[in-house]
């Protein structure tokens, strides 16, 4: 008894120290995000010093620098939203399916958005297929179909969800290929979207996806404790008073909203939803109370950093951010795997 009493203060102190370290790390991550936001506005075909970016932001005067800064702000805002959405959705999907390879494409969201876009372009014309609203319905419907098929009137287990996602994605990909091969105009629309890029999106895109991202983030962040319980298994979670089915449904709904908004806005961007949760988990552990806030901050850091790199290495042109994220994120994930820290 005395030993247990003696160990209790030590355990509490260790937890407090760990929480302090993780809290300071989160502050550092926020500062890094601020720096990357500044670089995203400053770097481009015409570089702008960070000091001038701040001056133009505080006091726009209609000068060339102010015009350049104003034109890059919507792109940076879109990268902030999409990076946060993909990273948070990735960690939630990994937690729900208990699959370390889980990413936003696992629930069929990417394939659903692609199918919705090409069908809209084929029926209403290529211009209609370039809007956010052309991709959102298909992403949501595909995720709903995956959940219904995965549950089959019973409990939606992780294995069933993964298999249902693979089946639905295969059917939708076949539909996309059939339509794009038959209609060159639709193929052009699809090709400009599927590469995954922050460039060329109208400023109104930010306002279109903002409600989806905000609602999805709120839902996912509120599920931090239930996801921790769900990681113990459905039976253990139920014994703790958790309704596993409801948690899985809410988590899938929140992640789907985030994925649908991100994919509809900029196209399918790989690796952010897969790599960021793994990298974060390597130093926070599997506690979603820390995983989710860190992913919320570091997701935009990775995406915007990749976008900046894409502008620098191909001047005066640029590489799509979807092509750069793999090169930026892969080394971090490989390092985590080699150290044996990837897992749930």
Mean pLDDT: 82
| Helical coverage, percent range | over 70%
Radius of gyration: 21 Å
What best-fitting shape do the alpha-carbon axes yield?
Answer: globular
Please give the count of helices: 14
Tell me about this structure.
This protein has 344 residues and is an all-alpha fold. The protein has a single domain (22-39, 48-57, 75-338), classed as ABC transporter involved in vitamin B12 uptake, BtuC, CATH 1.10.3470. It has helices at 2-42, 50-58, 64-97, 109-124, 132-151, 158-182, 184-194, 204-221, 224-230, 234-239, 244-266, 272-284, 288-313, 321-338. The protein is globular. The two termini are 34 Å apart. The model has no long low-confidence stretch (mean pLDDT 82).
